Amino acid sequence: MPTDMQPLTSDRTFAAFLFDMDGTLLTSIAAAERVWTAWAQRHGVDAVALLVHLHGRRAIDTIRGLNLPGVDAETEAAAITQAEIDDVDGVAPIAGAAAFLAALPPEQWAVVTSAPRALAERRMAAAGLPLPAVFITAEDVSAGKPAPDGYRLAAARLGVAAKNCVVFEDAPAGIQAGEAAGAAVVVIRATHQQPITSPHPSVASYGSLRPEAALDGGWRIARV
Question: What does the pLDDT read at residue 58?
Answer without folding.
Answer: 85
